[in-house]
Amino acid sequence: MIFHPIPEALRRLRFRLILALAMGLSLVAQAGDARAAESGLPIPRFVTLRADKVNVRAGPGTQYPVEWVFERKGMPVEVIAEHENYRKVRDIEGTEGWVHQNLLSSRRGIVVSGAIRALRREPQDGASVLARVEPDVVGQLLACSGPWCRVEVGGYRGWLKRAEFWGVYPDEKIE
Predict the structure, then answer these.
(1) Rounded to an integer, what distance in angstroms lies between the CA atom of residue 118 and that of residue 109?
(2) Which residue among 7, 47, 64, 175 has the highest number of C-beta atoms inside a 10 angstrom radius?
(3) Do 160 and 167 contact (CB within 8 A), yes or no?
């Protein structure tokens, strides 16, 4: 039997190929796990914070550091990705991070944006004003049809235009 040693360059190439194949198989397995763990709900979608203090992490798990803490129960956030029990969310300012799904609620909320807004009795520009709502005030989204949405803010139920708050998509209908 004749023994032919494998040249060093060929051994390195074979090692790199085996490593690349193993990494590729690992990524395929992880992608399969993520699909199996998905909620089946649409992405993106709006949800609200379930607690007064919600840790926002750099990645989807407790092994990732807490980057900041949300401190507004009921505040809407947009779910833009899912991984197992974690949801990647985006807030009104565009800041993104990962939150455990148990800290999110399917209830819908709003954040008033821009200027002071008139909360109206009816979904019409000339309708009487129930209250004036300041920017960054958090409320609950009740229904939307057309350009108007019924909301509850500070104990008042009335109507705001979609363009006056954040927490709903332009053509989304909510009943």
Answers:
(1) 17
(2) 47
(3) no
pLDDT for position 22: 42
Task: Output Rg (C-alpha) for the chain, integer angstroms.
Answer: 24
The DSSP code for 93 is: T
Q: Options 2.60.120.200, 3.30.470.20, 2.30.30.40, 1.10.10.10; which CATH number does 110-166 get?
A: 2.30.30.40
Residue 7 pLDDT more than 80?
no
* Tokens linked to 175: 């009943």
Tokens of 121: 């009795």
User: What confidence tens digit (pLDDT) does each residue in 107-154 have?
Assistant: 999 999 999 999 999 999 999 999 999 999 999 999 998 999 999 999
Contact 93, 114 (CB under 8 A): no
Q: Record the pTM.
A: 0.76
Nearest in space to 77 (alpha carbons), one of 171, 166, 16, 154: 166
